[in-house]
Amino acid sequence: MYSRKFSTPPDTIIKKGKAKFGTYKGISQKLDIKGMRAPYAGIPLPTFISRWRIKSRLIYLFNTDKFIGMTEFFDLKVFGTVQVVFWNKETEKKYTYFCFMGPRKRIIPVNTTAGTCVSSRKSRYVKVFWGRNHEHLAMKFSVKGDANRPDAQGSFFSPAESKNHTDYLFVNPSPASSRCSATWFSTMDIQGKINISGKEEDSSKGIAALAVNRTYIKFHSISTHVWGMGKIKDKNVIFQLRSSNLDAADQDRYNENILIVDGKETGLPSVVMTHPFGINKSWIIQDTESMVDLTFEPVSVNTRARNIIAMRTSYTTIYGNFTGVLLDSEGNKTNLKNFPGIINRNLLRL
Predict the structure, then answer these.
(1) What is the CA radius of gyration of the chain?
(2) How far apart are CA 332 and CA 309, in angstroms?
(3) Model pTM?
(4) Which residues partner with 249 through β-bridges?
(5) CA count, 13 A, side-chain hemisphere, 158
(6) Residue from 253, 202, 209, 170 nearest 344 by CA
(7) How many Cα atoms are found within 13 Å in the side-chain-facing hemisphere of 75?
(8) Of the candidates 342, 294, 322, 345, which has an alpha carbon nearest to the alpha carbon of residue 94?
(9) Of 192, 176, 221, nearest in space to 346 by CA
(10) How many CB atoms lie within 10 A of CB 205?
(11) Is 28 in contact with 12 (CB distance < 8 Å)?
């Protein structure tokens, strides 16, 4: 059976121009990948030039009794974007809010010990922050509505001392060893609430995940992320699957795919995702090791595209349900039926 070792994280990801590739349980103090030697075409560009090709992304996902959704920050150096999208699982109603952020030194912090990622615009106030020494990781938002959507506020808080709190670091070639992609993935219990139009729609416990990625990006990048999170027989189940044109050449050895059941992790092999009838129809997600065999039925799709001079971005976020089987490292089956989750598909052209 496929297996991938989880090692102790390094003090620094990049040392003397080379990345310490691997899968780690725990997290380094900084999620910093600048300083790679000759990351593009073997040309030894100065670090202050090649670091401009590093793009960052932060995603906070949550699932409570009534709502499921995500907050996404995208740091493109020249500008940034932030999006909040969530669904009422009972009515399947979608709420989506988006805005641009102007140039700034850094939108997403590299420090994993303590940090704040924030959009401070009054109509789109969104904040994700963590302080591991004070044992918390939280997200809050306050967004103004318009003719098509109501005002909404939400806040979620998780103590790091929770038994379901986990931290993982994935450092992968992207696609070869001259470039790298580093991801901090964290899971947690949460207590939170969402108010819509001034009414407390939901105040309950749930589960959440944080994914922060930095990568040396291509001029044309496409990525698809899959997350499922919920409870099965009183066990917290969270999984992440990813496929992109930035993936390592040896995808089974280096990837970000993981299954976590009540805090116990299993590294999953690379997967193939297909949607033969379109992205808003059934998805099939499988591997070659018989550890991942899933179908995903979309419930609601949110798509947003932007063209800015020579730059094009396209975001598609899909809420739906998984059915199928996942195997852990010991061969135990996790059977999914109408299991909630989100697929996020991004395209960036520079």
Answers:
(1) 19
(2) 51
(3) 0.94
(4) none
(5) 29
(6) 209
(7) 25
(8) 342
(9) 221
(10) 10
(11) yes
Transcribe 7-65 into DSSP letters: BPPPS-SEETTEE--EEEES--SB---TT-SSTBTTB---HHHHGGGEEEEEEEEEEES
SS3 77: coil
Please give the structure tokens belonging to residue 278.
């379109």
Residues 225 and 242 sit within 8 Å (Cβ to Cβ): yes
Q: For 99-126, give the DSSP string.
A: EEE---S-SS-SBSSEEEEEEEETTEEE
Which of 121, 194, 137 minimizes the C-alpha distance to 129? Answer: 137
Q: What is the length of the chain?
A: 350
Q: Which two tokens stand for residue 316?
A: 């598609």
Angle at 82 between CA 72 and CA 239, to 5 degrees: 5
d(CA 222, CA 66): 31
Closest CA to 319 of 334, 339, 346, 347: 339
CB environment 317-343: b (16+ within 10 A), e (fewer): bbbbbbebebbbbeeeebebeebbbbb
Taking Cα atoms as reference points, which of 4, 322, 2, 15 lies closest to residue 168?
Answer: 4
Using CA atoms, how far apart are residues 340 and 299, in angstroms rounded to an integer? 10
Q: What is the pLDDT of residue 198?
A: 85
Identity of the amino acid at 282:
S
Token reading at 119: 């959009």
| pLDDT tens profile 182-230 | 999 999 999 999 999 988 788 889 999 999 999 988 778 899 999 999 9
